[in-house]
Amino acid sequence: MNIGMIGTGNMGSILIEAFIDSMAVPPSRLTITNRTISKAVRVKDRYPDIQVATTATEVAQVADLIFICVKPLEIYPLLQELKPVLSSDKCIVSITSPISVQQLESEVDAQVARIIPSITNRALAGVSLVTLGESCSERTSQFLDTLFNQISTPVHIEDNVTRVASDIVSCGPAFFSYLLRRFINAAVKETQITEEQAVTLASGMIMGMGKLLEKEIFTLQSLQEKVCVKGGVTGEGIKVLEAELGEVFEHLYHSTHEKYYEDIELIGEQFKK
């Protein structure tokens, strides 16, 4: 299949790079565009065989699978622009959580899917969240699963867990990067360790922990229990976390869901037109 990418910002570029680096998609099968066309040209500078189109419509004309990697409120007008060149043998893939596959299907004569990627996919790792529309053919479904298996572990989800799943998979790397930075900054502030040393040690720790979980040597619970020896130093640290964290993560989910429902309401007004 020919792949189109409308939007070459953070996630659009990550998908392009992951598809190419995993050899899932040859650069020559990719046609890309961006509202600021120079950003798409910069991607082509790295991968000369990529085709750059000047408009989204041109991308949709030549692509079988069309990734829409723009802001949520830009999707409805973009679909109106693309309508004349879409057909039932093409598939629109949205990467944004507030727009459902049902809303996409209500506007276009094409197959649709929603696939929410993660920055971890750039390392050909992590999870991608897949929701297929009823219009999605078996052939397209299989192709999407094969494609995303090259860069991630695709997990099929229903609408009712879209936001929380996205919080964990897509937002999670930013949340835990922030926590790790705070962990490192406190070490530098409170002890004589240098920032460079702390970053090296913390980075190695987090990657090693990931390997333990990936290889199923430990679960999250058993890992904690293995390190947290009764009466030891780790246990004292856990006590601080239990006392200080409180309901911080509950508040986090409340906040992300509140923004999510605000976006859904605004997008819903567009799709009622």
Automatic annotation (TrEMBL):
Q: Where does NADP(+) bind?
A: I6, G7, T8, G9, N10, M11
| Top-tier EC class | oxidoreductase
Q: What positions does the domain Pyrroline-5-carboxylate reductase dimerisation occupy?
A: 163-260
Any Pfam family from its record, for instance, is F420_oxidored
Recorded superkingdom:
Bacteria
Its signal peptide is none
Looking up Gene3D superfamilies in the UniProt record yields: NAD(P)-binding Rossmann-like Domain, ProC C-terminal domain-like
Location in or out of the cell: Cytoplasm
Query: In its UniProt entry, what is this protein called?
Result: Pyrroline-5-carboxylate reductase
- UniProt source species: Litchfieldia salsa
Taxonomic lineage from the root: Bacteria, Bacillati, Bacillota, Bacilli, Bacillales
Question: What is the name of the gene encoding this protein?
Answer: proC
